[in-house]
């Protein structure tokens, strides 16, 4: 259950299950150096994770009086179990956006806005409600519940001999952070880079081009002299060239999806967002689309929204508002 992934400093991995579009595992990493402890991400609530994690931390002998927590982002599979783990005295380092954007009232407004966008993409009212439920991946952070320590790009977090540099890497989520230790080349990458899957990009609030931000910050991480990359999901990577190749592959995949949408719009001379999701991204007939599980359709709709925002932001596509019907997107 507890796996040593680095000897100096001592870093352990604890894998915790989650269930969403499928079943998977999230990595909780625990670092111990010179009497100080660091926990990076935690895991999903439920599924016995609180018991699993508490047992593992007891086995490691974690001293919460000399412990800090770093959160890469606030998705449920990285932060959901925190209320069962942390007392209010343990410092929790995270993006200021993670606290503000995940307060219950703001979360409701964000979800209402997402449902409206799904309707504007061409989804029915029923489907838009379902996609909104699928989009509720964020953990609620109550005001005053944790010892919040908001951090920004360039800040340092000291743990024993280690000095972790905060890197703002929005894209997968608006609040995503990576943590990099330059002297030892250790990178806690969260879900910014994953070794086996291409990370999704969230629908950022206020129409922000999240995909553009993601691609920009992928280049930034690629240039780091990393000797050990630790991910939110999957096994560590110790070879810098392999990590760079993986980043290149993710970027190429994202760009290929953008090109597929643009080619579809050029051929059709315009389409709704749902048509983009169904035809250009999922490659499904209308009947097959309706037979597809709502969670899978949601991910195609989310990707279509994110790609269309990016194409509009970069001037290659324009969005045409229609009276009472779904918006149309066409190439400029």
Automatic annotation (TrEMBL):
Residues in domain Metallo-beta-lactamase? 25-233
Per its UniProt record, what SUPFAM superfamilies does this chain match?
Metallo-hydrolase/oxidoreductase
What protein am I looking at?
MBL fold metallo-hydrolase
Which Pfam families does the record associate with it? Lactamase_B
- Give the source's domain of life in one word: Bacteria
Matching InterPro entries: Metallo-B-lactamas, RibonucZ/Hydroxyglut_hydro, Sec-metab_biosynth-thioest
């Amino acid at each position: 259950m507890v796996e040593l992934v680095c000897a100096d400093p001592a870093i352990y991995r604890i894998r915790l299950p989650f269930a969403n579009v499928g079943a998977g595992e999230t990595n909780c990493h625990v670092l111990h150096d010179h009497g100080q402890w660091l926990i990076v991400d935690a895991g999903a609530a439920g599924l016995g994770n609180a018991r699993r994690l508490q047992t593992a931390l007891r086995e490691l002998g974690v001293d919460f009086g000399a412990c800090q927590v770093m959160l890469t982002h606030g998705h449920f599979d990285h932060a959901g179990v925190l209320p069962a783990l942390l007392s209010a005295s343990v410092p929790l380092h995270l993006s200021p956006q993670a606290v503000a954007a995940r307060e219950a009232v703001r979360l409701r407004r964000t979800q209402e806005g997402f449902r409206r966008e799904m309707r504007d993409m061409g989804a029915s009212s029923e489907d838009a409600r379902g996609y909104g439920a699928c989009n509720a991946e964020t953990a609620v952070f109550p005001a005053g519940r944790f010892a919040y320590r908001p951090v920004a790009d360039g800040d340092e977090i000291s743990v024993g001999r280690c000095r972790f540099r905060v890197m703002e890497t929005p894209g997968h989520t608006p609040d995503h952070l990576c943590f990099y230790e330059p002297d030892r080349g250790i990178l806690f990458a969260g879900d910014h880079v994953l070794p086996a899957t291409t990370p999704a990009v969230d629908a950022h609030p206020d129409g922000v081009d999240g995909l553009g931000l993601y691609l920009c910050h992928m280049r930034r991480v690629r240039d780091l002299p990393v000797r050990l990359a630790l991910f939110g999901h999957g096994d560590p990577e110790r070879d810098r060239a392999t990590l760079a190749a993986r980043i290149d592959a993710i970027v190429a995949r994202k760009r290929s999806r953008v090109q597929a949408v643009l080619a579809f719009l050029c051929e059709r001379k315009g389409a709704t967002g749902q048509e983009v999701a169904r035809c250009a991204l999922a490659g499904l007939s209308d009947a097959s689309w309706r037979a597809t599980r709502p969670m899978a359709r949601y991910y195609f709709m989310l990707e279509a929204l994110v790609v269309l925002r990016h194409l509009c932001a970069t001037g290659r596509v324009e969005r045409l508002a229609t009276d009472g019907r779904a918006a149309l997107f066409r190439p400029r």
